[in-house]
Amino acid sequence: MQTLWDHRYAQRMQRIKASAIRELLKLTEQPDVISFAGGLPAPEVFPIEEFKEACIRVLNEQGDFALQYGSTEGYLPLREMIARHTSRYGIQISAENVMITSGSQQALDLIGKVFINRGDRILVESPTYLGALQAWNTYGAEYVTVRTDDDGMVTEDIEGALRAGPKFIYVLPNFQNPMGVTISLERREQLVEMADRYGVPIVEDDPYGQLRFEGKHLPAVEVIDARTRVQNGHYTGNVIYLSTFSKILAPGIRLAWIIAPPEVIRKLVLAKQGTDLHTATFNQVVAYEVGRHGFLDQHVKKICQVYKERRDVMLEALEEHMPEGVTWTHPQGGLFLWLRLPEQCDATELFPAAVKNKVAYVPGESFHPNGGGKNTMRLNFSYPTPEKINEGIARLGKMLKEEICA
Ligand code: PMP
């Protein structure tokens, strides 16, 4: 049906297309399909009782405040809690360096709004987080890509990419979405050194860093950068760091945070005012009440136990059911792993056969801003139960054997 709006869409909407992937994923909503396609946390680990108690306490004790408009920067005690928590990892920051956003997705959008002019190049890993590309496409971003292997971003590629004059570098240091890989310490140091040498700042997106099941915690890129950049106790570095409560508490509360130098925070705050004035006061106060007495540390341990079991089940099932020539990453944390099919295979073309076999994944091509990755797919292990993971990987293995070994 035609309306008067038809010819009035802004030019920027030309870059925003309903993705083929989303259309494909609609097919996976049938209840008998086992889906490894989403990126949802396990609802079994949502701290429902803690939220219930906190909601009642907040409404009883500070309902007037929690239901009122709040400041754009965010609820101060929550920002202070994040600053204290971050300081444990060796970077001295204060609430002045912290702002609260409505999910990290909003943080990515605000970064686009504040920094990206049409035609600006952003240096990204290939593959990288699809949501960042979606946010930045609206602002007319172009992408220079570097490869990602099992040790994360390939630093050999960075120097060439930096010569293309990117506005900033976007990195996913831990258990990357989509591959599940982590950037090694040596590569983090090289990245900071090269970014510094070429004078290009870094956006570090780290929703999964705390969800490490094994191996040693690695310092954030921001922490490495900060070693040389703290003045009068304030972080003045080259990195904007993002993290979120989505994976350590619950995504439905839409709460995340940005850590950045105070001048950058001020610009982001101005941009946020026009977007939503501030993040929901009630959600911030409740999350603070849930988290304030060290609850998060014990809760993160519980999430890690559940996800580690699911990852192990998926790795074992892959060993058992995958045909020869298929390989996969072995993530030490997070929510995802990455499957590579033989070179000639196309995971998008295979998708209807997967759905016919009642199993779903995300074809890897969509995570590559400049193409490539046709023979790859992303699998999520946090949401399906171990039984579903076993059954789903068996179905996927059967489909792949039929299709690629035929
Ligand atoms: N960045 C990355 C790398 C993600 O994987 C996600 C969520 N899947 C986000 C940002 C957005 O997270 P949220 O908006 O829920 O905080």
TrEMBL record:
<keyword id="KW-0663">Pyridoxal phosphate</keyword>
<dbReference type="InterPro" id="IPR015424">
    <property type="entry name" value="PyrdxlP-dep_Trfase"/>
</dbReference>
<keyword id="KW-0808">Transferase</keyword>
<feature type="domain" description="Aminotransferase class I/classII large">
    <location>
        <begin position="47"/>
        <end position="396"/>
    </location>
</feature>
<keyword id="KW-0032">Aminotransferase</keyword>
<dbReference type="GO" id="GO:1901605">
    <property type="term" value="P:alpha-amino acid metabolic process"/>
</dbReference>
<protein>
    <submittedName>
        <fullName>Aminotransferase</fullName>
    </submittedName>
</protein>
<dbReference type="InterPro" id="IPR050859">
    <property type="entry name" value="Class-I_PLP-dep_aminotransf"/>
</dbReference>
<dbReference type="GO" id="GO:0030170">
    <property type="term" value="F:pyridoxal phosphate binding"/>
</dbReference>
<dbReference type="InterPro" id="IPR015421">
    <property type="entry name" value="PyrdxlP-dep_Trfase_major"/>
</dbReference>
<dbReference type="Pfam" id="PF00155">
    <property type="entry name" value="Aminotran_1_2"/>
</dbReference>
<dbReference type="InterPro" id="IPR015422">
    <property type="entry name" value="PyrdxlP-dep_Trfase_small"/>
</dbReference>
<comment type="subunit">
    <text>Homodimer.</text>
</comment>
<dbReference type="GO" id="GO:0008483">
    <property type="term" value="F:transaminase activity"/>
</dbReference>
<comment type="similarity">
    <text>Belongs to the class-I pyridoxal-phosphate-dependent aminotransferase family.</text>
</comment>
<dbReference type="InterPro" id="IPR004839">
    <property type="entry name" value="Aminotransferase_I/II_large"/>
</dbReference>
